[in-house]
Amino acid sequence: MKPGFVRVIGGKWRGRRLKVPEMPGLRPTPDRVRETLFNWLGQKLGGTRCLDLFAGSGALGFEALSRGAEYVELVDQSADVVRLLKEELAQFKAENALVYCARVPAGLRPPAQPFDIVFLDPPYQEDLLLPCCHYLEEKGYLANSALIYLEARAIIKDNDLPQRWHIIKAQQAGQVYYHLAVRDTK
């Protein structure tokens, strides 16, 4: 497992590097995509509870912590990835995060309280994005007005998502389509 690196691009840890294990299917969200996403989120991160599913390099969860998220859960199905993320959290002295290994979505721990922001960037070949969206909605993982980041190999439309979700931003970078959805309060 030979690591590469990604950098945290903003906040208190700006410029710090995260190790990225060399594993099949692991593709960290590119810097310019992360920068756009966190510009979309703007000042909404302060005091939020975030869930980073399919955490991989941890770039999205660490970026959220760096920019003021109150708490982040990072979940990955690889025990090696989880071990590396725990080491990184210890090096960053981040105490407001939890990392655990689980098959998503069925292996997720029930939330202590709903999440304000969720990052969904599953391996494309496993076709888990939309099933995860519906699982999170049905099982009470989301706060009212939650924001959900979706990364996929194809564009996502509102009618693909749970009824209360609506795409508010979408862009493409190369072969990556990325979206920000909001959960309606009704």
UniProtKB/TrEMBL annotation:
Keywords of this entry: Methyltransferase, rRNA processing, S-adenosyl-L-methionine, Transferase
Domain of life assignment: Bacteria
CDD domains (alphabetical): AdoMet_MTases (cd02440)
Database matches in InterPro entries: DNA_methylase_N6_adenine_CS, RNA_MeTrfase_RsmD, SAM-dependent_MTases_sf
KW Signal (keyword) present: no
Molecular functions per Gene Ontology: 16S rRNA (guanine(966)-N(2))-methyltransferase activity; nucleic acid binding
Name of one Pfam family that matches: Cons_hypoth95
Reactions the enzyme catalyzes: guanosine(966) in 16S rRNA + S-adenosyl-L-methionine = N(2)-methylguanosine(966) in 16S rRNA + S-adenosyl-L-homocysteine + H(+)
Native source organism of the sequence: Aquicella siphonis
UniProt function note: Specifically methylates the guanine in position 966 of 16S rRNA in the assembled 30S particle.
SUPFAM superfamilies: S-adenosyl-L-methionine-dependent methyltransferases
Keyword Methyltransferase belongs to the record: yes
EC assignment: 2.1.1.171
Official protein name in the record: Ribosomal RNA small subunit methyltransferase D
Family: Belongs to the methyltransferase superfamily. RsmD family.
